Structures are given as C-alpha cells and as structure tokens.
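Follow-up to my earlier ticket, as requested here are the two runs.
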Amino acid sequence: QDERFLAACDKLGMLVWEEQVSWGWAPEDVANETLMSQHALLVEEMVGAHINHPSIIIWAFLNEGHGQYEEATGFKMVSQVLRERDPSRLVSWASAACAHDKHWDHADVISCNDYTGWYYGHIGIIPALWGQYAEWRRTLYPGKAFLVSEVGASAADGYRMEAYLSRLDAEARPQAGSVPNLDELYSWGRWSQEYQSALIQTHVISILSSGLAGVALWMFADTPTEHAVWRPGSRPRGYNNKGVLTVERGRKLAAEQVERLFQGAKWGVDARVVGPWTEAA
C-alpha cells in the first residue's frame, strides 16, 4: 500500500489488511519451493517497510492461491516467515477454496472469497451458505475468527431496471423479508445496479447474522483491468465493475445500502433485497 494511504488509515483509526501481490498463480507455482522462497522475500520486504503502521492488523499473501491442494506447501513457508518477522500481527490469505482449503492450520484467521449469486449459484442459497460456514468454523476451528475477505457483484454504470420493473404485476413480487430465486426472477437483471444492491445486501446481512467476524466488499470503486485476462463479455468497457462507486466516484444504488448496513443502524432485510425496485414502486 502507498505510505500516504497507510498514514491516513493510522490517523483515522481504520484497520488494514496488507497483502503482497500474488493473485492468479497456478497450483504448481504455490508448490514450487524456489518461487515461494522468492515470494517470502517480498513478504519480508513488505513487513519491513510498513511494520510501524499501527493500522495494519493482518499480513496476507497468495490471494486465491489454490489452498485445496495438499502440495501447496507455500502457505506453511510464508506463514512461518511472517510470524518470525512480526509475531505481533495476524496472518491469513484470501482463499477461494474456503472450506476445502487444506492449510488453515497455518493461518490465524480463516478468510474466504465467495461470489455466490454472481459467478455461481443464486441469491436464494446465500443465507444457508453462511450459516453452514459458521457451523463449520465452530466445529473445526473454534479458536479462529472467520472473515469474509471478498464478496460482491458487478453493476455497469448507468444500467438500471426501473423501466422493466414498472411493468411487473405487484402481486407476482415476493413478500418483503423473503429471498427469491434470482435464477428464475432476475436472471435478466445481471449487471444492473438493482441486482448488485440486492446481492450485496443479502450477503452482508447473512454474514453478520451468522456471527462471522466481518465482511469486506470487493470492491470500493470500479477500476480499469487487464483486457487480456478476461473474456470480452466479463469486463464491460475494460473495467472491473464490482465497485459500489463508479470510476468517477459516483454512488451506485448499492452504496446507500452498504453504508446503512456497515453503520449497524439496521440489520433487518431491506425491501430492496427481495425486490430491487424503489420504495415508491
């Protein structure tokens, strides 16, 4: 992280997860002792540069690093290096393998990236999903906190669904407080701000209601991304569109609900979770 960013977090009292860049590695990379030794050196440099920033509470590495494989020995190696360099802070990694990750014994915090409702699954299974994860943690890792390190959905700037929703028969809409199967009702709504808002609300409410330690959204604002990494249809305009703010920092519909939920004013299900139309509708 930029020194100016960390200094601002120190001043504001914001807690920081600092991670050495290592996303997109192949399973064989994480099992490669030479490569992981080089990565451990970079991790040591990160700690040495920023160890005096009190805002940093977690050192992390290997984002989505294929922890489902036993042979991914890099997790143990780098965790040991971090603890030797700075035993005062927690160690973790953002795992896409989640409950299938075989290396949680080497982490202080279990951290899971999950995109149910966006890349796979649908919104209706989200409450049960986080309830099952909470029970899994209590059973196997009662001494470790569970942090949801990434969750979210994309919304294209300016894409809204009011015109379509205004034609829906109100009697066909689900009752407030229920969670619909978006595969059936809102499959056409992907990329809309309403879909993003509904999905994020459902995740955040379900996570906090399950008693998990916390949740971080991916992501704050839309950013340009590498065109060559993704199929043309997955990154409209060449942007990662999962921000709750636009690239110009305009507020998407989800921003209002994220603010409300994270302030803890109300954890009950908002009407727009189950019907992403406006309250006036």
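Run two:
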Amino acid sequence: MEEFDVLRREATKLERNLEDKIARYHSLAQKIQVDSPLTHRSTSHTSSSLDAAESGSSNNMSSSAANEEALLANEINRTLGKLNDLINTKMAPAAERSNKAQHSLLVKRYREILFDSTNDFKKTSGAILRKRETLELFSGANTNGIQVEDPAMEQLLRERNAIGNSIRSATSVLNQASDIRNELRNQGMALRGVGTKVLNMAGRIPGLNGLIENIRRRRGRDDMVVSAAIAACILFTLWYV
C-alpha cells in the first residue's frame, strides 16, 4: 500500500507537469499563428519597404516561437514517456499485487489521462505543422521581388495560382447561374400571378361560359334559318323555270 501511494504521488506530479506543458503548448501554437508573416503583411502593397521590415520582424518572431515550440514538444514527449513507463511498469504491477479495486481504478484513470493528453498534444502539433506549411507556401507566393529557388516550391506556387484562377472562374460561373436562376424564378412568379388573375376574373363572372354557349346556339339557329330560306328560293326558281 505504501509503495502504491508513492507511485500515485509521482504520477500526480507528472500529470500536473504534463497539463502545464500542454497548456503552454496551446498558447504557443496560438502565438505562432498570430505572429505569422501573413498576419503582419500589408494588403495594399503600396509601401514595399515597410512590408519588408514588418515581414522580417515577423519572421524573427516566428523563428523564435518555432524554436520554443520544438523544445516544448520534446519536453512533452519525454513527460509522456515517463508517465507511460510509470503506469505500465510500476503502478499496474503494484495494483495487481495489492489486489485492491481502488488501485486498479486509479491505474485506469491515469491511463485515460495519458491517452487524452497524448491525443491533445498530437492534435495541436499537427495543427502547428499544417499552419507552418501553409505559411511557407503563402509567404513564398506573396513575396515581391524574391525568386523562389526550390523547384518543388515553384511547382506548388504554380499549382496554387492555377487552383486560385479555377476557383475564381468557377465562382464567376456560379454567380451568373445564380442570377439566371433568380431571373427565371421572378418570371415564373409573374406567370403564376397572371394565371391567378385569370382565375379570379373567371370566378367573378360565373355566367360567362353559359353566355358564350347561348350565343353559339343562337348563331347555329340563325344559320339554319338562312340555309332554309336559300333552299326555298332555289326550289322556287327551279319550279318557275
């Protein structure tokens, strides 16, 4: 029991140390993003000398933060390794020897802490790596008067420009399609409005269809009378001759 208490205190110390370092690592990751050259570069491009000075100071700050990040990452990896060894090689066997459920639960808890801390550290480290790669690519693309000597970087920049042009072209086409869709929608609404007005007019004159039918019947009777009169005249003419 006394042996396990000593190991538990050591694990608690490593846990607090690890939490402090990971918190510092999070803060450092945010600092690297804030102090990036893209954040400090002017978008107007009207004062190139001022932009160059700002970019140079930002690069120094970013380099210092990157060095600090590398040192802190190594310390976190060492602390994770110490905690892992302590749990698996000392605490777990001690818990089995003591044969107490409380000790087994503590071992399980520290393993969960180790798992969560490792995932948190890997997630932050991956985000920093992706951010650094993005900054290198975009800072190389936005630097005026400096030729990129790395052929691979030049290829990436060309691909980036081509993708950017494609995205702009696609956006323009989508905007045009959206305008056409809105125009067609407005025309459809206008046509539906006309149809509604026609139905309303038909509803206001319920006897209109009946009136048209009566006119058609009366015209049919008139045609029959005229036809009979013409036939009688023809017969009378034939009889007279």
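The only thing I checked on run two: The chain has six helices and no strands. Let me know what else you need.
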